[in-house]
Amino acid sequence: MENTKRELSPQEWSYLTRYFVGNNYRFRENIIIPKTLGPVQIKTNEEKRVEAFFESCPFKTFMSCVVGYGLGAAIGLFSSSVGPSATDVEQQTARQVFKEMKTTTLSYAKNFAIIGAMFSAVECTIETMRGKSDWRNGTYAGGVTGGLIGLRAGVKAGVIGAAGFAAFSTAIDYYMHSRF
């Protein structure tokens, strides 16, 4: 038996090219995706846009600000109820106590909101610039955030704040990722 080769016509080459390169004959429902952890569903464009919005830096920063405000308000309320700052406690009226509690609660809430927004914005920016999502992003963001907060009290306080906040961020990131 002789091995004969068959030449393809230009129409057959065109058909094969459109089939393998073009998207004319392959439909979305015919894509085979291996199932590793349950059924796989292809996301629609609307789902991709919503996911991109929720993963954006402005949304993350805003949510960190809101959650920080709520957490700070809760801690401030607890702090003001446990240890009042007034020296003449016996002469205080209920109105003065509530005013003091409001001041402390709002102060804590504002500070936690600023720190949360600043950390989230810096971390998201670093993650975007590096193109990676790993523990270093939180460490770098902690260093920048702690440094900026401590810098108000001087350079030495800025360096100590940067080191402390970076170490804390790294420890929290390690704890959160090692649990899951």
From TrEMBL:
Membrane topology (UniProt): Multi-pass membrane protein
Domain of life: Eukaryota
Compartmental location: Mitochondrion inner membrane
Cellular component GO terms, alphabetical: TIM22 mitochondrial import inner membrane insertion complex
Keyword Protein transport: yes
Signal peptide: none
Keywords: Membrane, Mitochondrion, Mitochondrion inner membrane, Protein transport, Translocation, Transmembrane, Transmembrane helix, Transport
Main location (coarse class): mitochondrion
An example Gene Ontology molecular-function term: protein transmembrane transporter activity
A Pfam family: Tim17
GO biological process, one term: protein insertion into mitochondrial inner membrane
Family from the record: Belongs to the Tim17/Tim22/Tim23 family.
Function: Essential core component of the TIM22 complex, a complex that mediates the import and insertion of multi-pass transmembrane proteins into the mitochondrial inner membrane. In the TIM22 complex, it constitutes the voltage-activated and signal-gated channel. Forms a twin-pore translocase that uses the membrane potential as external driving force in 2 voltage-dependent steps.
Subunit annotation: Component of the TIM22 complex.
Protein name from the UniProt record: Mitochondrial import inner membrane translocase subunit TIM22
Source species of the chain: Cryptolaemus montrouzieri
